[in-house]
Each structure stands twice: as structure tokens, then as C-alpha cells.
Amino acid sequence: MQGVKSVTKQAFMKSIPIMCSYVFVSMAYGMMMENAGFAWYYSLLTSLTVYTGAFQFVLITFLSSGASIVTIAVTALLMNSRQSFYSLSFLETFRKMGRKKLYMIHTMTDETYAVNCTIEDKDENSRKEMFLVAFFSRCYWMFGAVMGGLIGQLIPFELNGIDFCMTALFIIIFINQWEKADKHFPAVAGILIAVIALMIFGQRAFMLPALVIVSGVLIFWNSKQQKV
């Protein structure tokens, strides 16, 4: 049995790549929140309750424009539904973790999923390591969000253009998925449907119908692929 210090050290070492990305991206998020008129503690509260980087950036626009709760909720569900499927891979492992199970499901992100896949469920220490990776990763994001909010208050000039980091984030995610995927129909369909929805519904209202249509198309396409 490994000691607590050893398990903590291993978890921290495995979480370092996540820290390098989370801290800087979440700092940009905190700055954007401050630039939109929300103080640092709003960034912290949002990170505590939402904890999904891509949607948190989108949420800034929703909060600033006064979007309805229904629009926010449905968009959050559709944008982050993939994370629910991540947890399916660790059902047996999470079940063994008792009261920590719900926390592990809530904190399952692209990055923590990737790290957890490298940790075999051999014993209790392995599960502790998974928990600590999730805990450290969430702390990194919250720390960066708060720091970004505080820095945003100190910067004496407008942060025009910093919102491009959200666009850059989605572009990086898209390129990464494109390179890994064997079939590119989902990506192409997503682009075409988004463009058509933008032309029909306009810039302020296209996102929700685009997500609904894309989700329906991909569910149908996936069912056809399974039958082949």
C-alpha cells in the first residue's frame, strides 16, 4: 500500500499538464467576466457550480445579453452531454468510491478523463489518485478564474479582443477532434448546420437551434453506423 504522500505526489505530477492549460485559460475567462461587469467572486461562484470551460465562456454572453434560463440550460446540456458518456467508462470504479462518486461524475472533463484513462483501478490508492487529479484540476481552474478577475480589475485599459480566446479554444478543440477522428461527417455537419442556422435565425438566436439540429442529425447518423 502506498502512503498518502506518495499517492498525492503521483496525482499532482499527473495533473501538471492540466494545470498548465487550466490556469491560463481560466485566467482569460476571469478577465472576460470582469470585462463584462462581473466581479471575481462571480467567476469563482460560476466555476464552483458549472465547471465546464467551454460553456463558461459562452455563459458570459448569455449573462450579458439576458438570455432565458431555458436557453442557458438546454445549451449547457447539449454542449456538455459528452461528459456524461465519459463517466460511463468508469461506472464500476466510481461505484467503489462511495460518497465521492457524484463528485467524480461532476468533475469529469476532457482533461481529467484523459488522465484517468492512464490510471488502472488496481486498488483503493488508484481511486484516491483519480480523486486527487479531479480535485487538483478543479482547484487550478478556480484559482485561474479568480486571478483573472483580480488582474482584470487592475488593468487600466480595455480588454478588447481577449474574448478571441474563446474562439481560439473552440478552434483548438475542433482541430484536435478532426485529427483523432476516422470519419469527419460530424465536424462537417456541425459547420454546415451552424452556418445555415446563423443565416436563418441570426447571430443572437442561432446557437440553440443549431445544437438541437446537430444533436438530432448525429444521433440518427450514429444509429445508422451501428447497423452497418
Automatic annotation (TrEMBL):
Record's keyword annotation contains Cytoplasm: no
Superkingdom, taxonomy of origin: Bacteria
Entry keyword annotation includes Cytoplasm: no
Chain ranges passing through the membrane: 21-42, 54-79, 131-155, 161-178, 185-201, 207-223
Coarse class of the protein's main subcellular location: membrane
Keywords: Cell membrane, Membrane, Transmembrane, Transmembrane helix, Transport
Compartments (UniProt record): Cell membrane
Membrane topology of the entry: Multi-pass membrane protein
InterPro entries registered for this protein in UniProt: Brnchd-chn_aa_trnsp_permease
Family: Belongs to the AzlC family.
Protein name in the entry: Branched-chain amino acid ABC transporter permease
